[in-house]
């Protein structure tokens, strides 16, 4: 359970309150943006190490996406509250995250624990981590504000496309689960 990738995920989770403090408490979006970038970059690192070191675990399959969801939620809600993220962009992310959370809850209640992570989902998450972080960094470096838009729009589109794919995966998982239960009876 305590593997190097899981330790990295735990560190990512521990850095989220620091990010919130930098953004809201200290009103330093520039530093918060860099920290969010680090949290996002280590998302890739923990997954890579899990595969490379053969330390893929059930805990890691839950911990890694949990760290992603909490970091994205903190960044988006914090960015919305502080006014550093464009409102429509933040609300588009909140709506998608809410729909995915509801879908995950329905899947869990129907007896299925998780879905396979899609590479396009990882790409969308990477682009959105970068975009949100760069909106914050762009408060001091204007070029990063434009870079945020350049990666943010495609990231948002991919995020919704993958959300639809996850919904289809979830429906298939529920159907298989229900068919398996029916066959047992």
Topology:
Layout: H1 4-25, H2 29-52, H3 58-82, H4 87-109, H5 119-137, H6 142-184
Q: How would you describe the overall organization of this protein?
A:
By secondary structure, this protein is mainly α. It has a single domain (4-184), classed as Four Helix Bundle (Hemerythrin (Met), subunit A). Helix content is 84%, strand content 0%. The chain has six helices and no strands. Helix 3 (58-82) packs parallel to helix 5 (119-137) and helix 5 runs antiparallel to helix 6 (142-184). The chain is globular. The termini are far apart. The model has no long low-confidence stretch (mean pLDDT 90).
Give a quick summary of the entry.
The chain is mainly alpha-helical. The protein is built from six helices and no strands.
The name of the CATH architecture is Up-down Bundle
Proportion of strand residues: under 5%
CATH hierarchy class name: Mainly Alpha
Structural class: mainly alpha
By CATH, the topology is Four Helix Bundle (Hemerythrin (Met), subunit A)
Number of separate helices: 6
**From N to C, what is the helix and strand string?**
HHHHHH
